[in-house]
Amino acid sequence: MSGADDPTPNKPDPGSTHRDTRGKNADRPGMPGPAPEERPHPEGRRNSQGIRIDPAVEAEHEPRRATISALVEDEPGVLSRVSGLVSRRQFNIESLTVGPTTVEGHSRITMVVEESDPGIDQIEKQLAKLKPVISVGELHDDAVSAELVLLKVRGEEPDKVHAITEMYGGQTLDAGPRTITVQLTGDEQKIDDAIDAFEQFGIIEIARTGQTALSRGDTQTVPGEEPGTSGEPTSHATDVGETTQQPYHDP
Amino acid sequence: MTTRDEPTDSEETAAATGSADAGEPTHEPPSDAATDGGTAAAEADAAEETTEAAATRTPTTGAESVIAALEAAGAETAFGVQGGAIMPVYDALYASSVHHVTMAHEQGAAHAADAYGVVSGETGVCLATSGPGATNLVTGIADASMDSDALLALTGQVPTELVGNDAFQETDTIGVTAPVTKHNYFASGTDTVGDTVGEAFAYAETGRPGPTLVDLPKDVTLGETDRTPKPPEPPAGAEVDPEADPDAVERAARVIEDAERPLCLFGGGVIKSDAADQACRFAHDHGIPVTTTMPGIGSFPENDPLSLSWAGMHGTGYANMAITHTDCLIAVGTRFDDRLTGGIETFAPEAEVIHIDIDPAEISKNVHADHPLIGDAGSVLEQLIAAIDDDPDAEAWRDRCADWKEEYPMTYAMPEDEPLKPQFVVEAFDEATDDDTIVTTGVGQHQMWAAQFWTYTEPRTWVSSHGLGTMGYGVPAAVGARLAADTAGDTDRDVVCFDGDGSFLMTIQELSVAVREDLDITFAVLNNEYIGMVRQWQDAFFEGRHMASEYEWMPEFDKLAEAFGAKGWAVSEYDAVADTIEAALAYDGPSVIDFRIDPAENVYPMVPSGGANGKFALSEEQL
Ligand SMILES: Cc1ncc(C[n+]2csc(CCOP(=O)(O)OP(=O)(O)O)c2C)c(N)n1
Description:
Radius of gyration of chain A: 29 Å
Oligomer: heterodimer
Largest sheet of chain B: 6 strands, parallel
Distance between the termini of chain B: 46 Å
Number of strands of chain B: 18
Helix content of chain A: 10-25%
Strand content of chain B: 5-15%
Protein name (chain A): Acetolactate synthase, small subunit
CATH class of the domain at 64-138 in chain A: Alpha Beta
Keywords (chain A): Amino-acid biosynthesis, Branched-chain amino acid biosynthesis
Bound molecules: thiamine diphosphate
CATH topology of the domain at 64-138 in chain A: Alpha-Beta Plaits
Organism (chain A): Halopenitus malekzadehii
CATH superfamily of the domain at 64-138 in chain A: ACT domain
Number of strands of chain A: 11
CATH superfamily of the largest domain in chain B: Thiamin diphosphate (ThDP)-binding fold, Pyr/PP domains
Pathway (chain A): Amino-acid biosynthesis; L-valine biosynthesis; L-valine from pyruvate: step 1/4; Amino-acid biosynthesis; L-isoleucine biosynthesis; L-isoleucine from 2-oxobutanoate: step 1/4
Number of helices of chain A: 5
Order of helices and strands of chain A: HEEEHEEHEEHEEHEE
Strand content of chain A: 25-35%
Shape of chain A: elongated
Family (chain A): Belongs to the acetolactate synthase small subunit family.
Structural class of chain B: alpha/beta
Low-confidence stretches of chain B: 1-55
């Protein structure tokens, strides 16, 4: 019964190529049981987000803009871990800023994303799973946020540029015969308006930091965050579990 | 039969010759070195730092501290391949209690360590050198990541000062493995490298298990230290509360009580949490039928009257009917992979979903959880058992499930004019072996037949590549599984690897390890001379154009086995199946049976990708 019994050398058998297994299988009866169309099928459905729906209504969560803040340990590679996660899971991200906090070794990452509620929930939970991430939270609508923009425009009309810069509370950082560079800060609306206004001079170059944000008043920016001073760690709160379920519990 | 009781070469050397006679001074046990060379102060320090868990000797180098950390973590076995950048670590293994198994290929090392972890319930350990060694590990690490298996990979790296210079055998291992690890660490100092390795080992098995990696630059492992590593502990914040929110448990309990068509879906998390007992009790106490996922095979005895076996693409018809019609799905430790759910729109479309999982990110990732219960599977099932006052009134539902079992039996035809059927081979093996037999597989049709036609009754007996679907997993996994069973003293336990001819060829070189280590494993190649699963899809969806799925020529595996030093048989007749299986199982060492099976045989039932589970096809015509 050993293969050694077979004296023929084990060579390719040209006759064996392109065996028509398809024909063979189409003829075969397969497994017993009622065919798909003979079976009962339920009426219910889920949407593409896996939520049970009334087929008549067909509601899906629309994407919305959200600001997510994450407190992270400032170890090498933390930014690449965060950005790798975002790209790997195809999260739609508009901006990401990062910088140190008052606590040595901790940084804050602020992300503006455009996602549906389940997507935002996933971003928060997946971020929370990264080891260097201490705590994550979405900021409320009333959070304070700002972006810094550097704009380089043509220098032909310095007075007009100056006036617009004043109007948006900006600062002139560099003014030469050919170009003027100004700095603007503000929330998204203000920056958008200002850029529109500068358009008339011809914007040569632009550099934007992306929005960074803190929660308003007493509210913590990320869950469990405590006012820290250098050397005094903020608390470790990693649980973003059950609470973040709520916003889209009822489709 | 194989035992690893006999001392390894290194132990022998150390024991027989003593350190004074050892050929090379560098191979002296570190304790002696410390006593000889260390100052009294250093010794006192070391003694203070030594914890009960930690090794009794003080390391002298970073590499020794790596090994001390492994020993302190309880690692008994490691799988790997030597190479320049990892040599200091291997040198430190010379005097270690950790048994090292040299594999033929690093991918094999990662799979073996993964399977070792699956069977033993402990973190598996693999080692590789920098560059190609590390990249060869990647498939195995990705496999462990997808299946949430606790695995620690230790990779050598070029010396720190050369990192970033494209030095010989340099790869950005941290960058390459970041997406497929739970976390990876670049060891930055000789004094802390042991702590890092201990943490990585512990982290791999904390919460939801997964692979971790420590990249070890050669200067860090060669550097001197006298610090004993801290006892292995996961990083701060990694520990998870095993219990779910009690209010959520109460609400879920009411839903279960009120259900008319309740169904359990046990995933791999039940096995990882060692919660098979609780899972069994939960289903029995409340009379709830059970399906499992593929990784969940073994979490509930498939011969139990409540068992509907596993659901999904090639799951049983009755499991897929039940999952389609349930009104209350109690899903435990599953991530609702698309091979399980089919099209999400039609997945358990009328079920309120109670989802127990240790990873909050799995809640509502794919299927919305009406009642998320975040915690350890075993603990939360206990909570639920305590919270349910009245059993659901599910008699009619149980009857319906039983009817489906009759309507869609898992059978196959054996016409005389057709070659040997693979299903028959799987059943014959099941019959010839005990319940605790460990089955490993490659990926393809044979994997599905092994899952469908073997009746699994115990956790940690089904060892396969699910999420990544890695052809070639079977052989090295069998090596790891065998070592795990032997290390636990279960030398009588059988290990059977069902492999496809294609999968077998991907990692066949690990047979050399099975022979060298004298591992009692039976390899059953279900040889259809095809990339069978691909051929099945081509017949169904590509009008039978067999592009690159026919091998046209296959080596004779029985002879190949003999050339490796294993025992080999080839079988093509039904009459020879039982006897050959008996002979192979009786053979004390690795053996290979090349079963020449029907190349035209297909796997059914089948839910086409993205299709409705309840519309599974029973024949090609229905696809
Ligand atoms: C590493 C790898 N490459 C390719 C595939 C795609 N693939 C899935 S099943 C399959 C066929 C496997 O053939 P074989 O091992 O002979 O098993 P059979 O299906 O014939 O039982 C292939 C190529 C895979 N899963 N893994």
